[in-house]
Structures are given as structure tokens and as C-alpha cells.
Amino acid sequence: MRTSIKLLSIFSIFVLALWTHGAVSEASNVSSDNKVKQKLFAVEIKVGSNWDKSKSPSEQRFFKEHSVNLQQLRKAGHIVMGARYSDIGLIIFSANSADEVKAFMEKDPSMSAGTFKYEVHPLNVFYPGMVGTKRSN
Fold first, then answer.
1. How many angstroms separate the Cα of 6 from the Cα of each of 2, 44, 61, 81?
2. What are phi and psi of 49, to 5 degrees?
3. CATH number of 2-24+35-122
4. What secondary structure letter does DSSP report for 128?
5. Which residues pair with 44 in a beta bridge?
6. pLDDT tens digit sequence for 72-127
């Protein structure tokens, strides 16, 4: 039960943060200048078949390259946010399609090396809110 509540809380934080950062619009997928907005995708990253349990994460094969790749994707505006829960990484991408997200992930050398594996899921925000604002009680 606690794990379910914790995961729901983490998911809620992501949804709320996405809303705050303007990645989601209640009205539609069309912006004011009639350009189609990109869709959101949740990418779960887990340890792969070649993860070495005897080593720390920073000592894993292609871990540094993985970090550099994610940094570049973030700077290019493809990553809305990322976090970790339990032993799973969760990255929220803004992209045109799941195939585009998969192409980004396939370029990551840690994926082809089996250090990590990933799954791409469409993210449909149904309960927007706010994160990072002070609330009075």
C-alpha cells in the first residue's frame, strides 16, 4: 500500500510539474499560432541485462555517456523533466511521436550495451495542477 501511494505521489508531482512548465494545455494540442504542439511521453529506464551489480551506478559501462546524452536532449528541449523512484528512472519527453522518442533512446550507448533498458509510454495528463508554489493553509 505504501509503495502504491509513493508511486502515485511521484506520478502526481510529474503531472503537476508538467502543467506548471507549460508543457500541457487544457484547451487543445494546437497553440495560438496554429502549430501542433508536441505530445508528451513517459520513458521508464531500468537496469539492463549487462548491469553489473558489483559496481555503483557511476562505475557502470557507458554510464557517463548516458548522462551526457540525457543532458544534450534536455538542452535541446526534448526532455521536460526527469527523476528517479525506487530503482527506475522516469523521463518525460516532448516529441512528435513515440518513434521519435525511441530514436533518441536508441542513440544512447548505454541502451545498446545493455547497461539500461527503456520503455516508452504516451503520457495523457488528466489532472493538471501546480508545483513549486507556496500554498497557505
1. 6, 16, 30, 18
2. -65, -25
3. 3.30.70.1060
4. -
5. 90, 119
6. 999 999 999 899 999 899 999 999 999 999 999 999 999 999 999 999 999 988 77
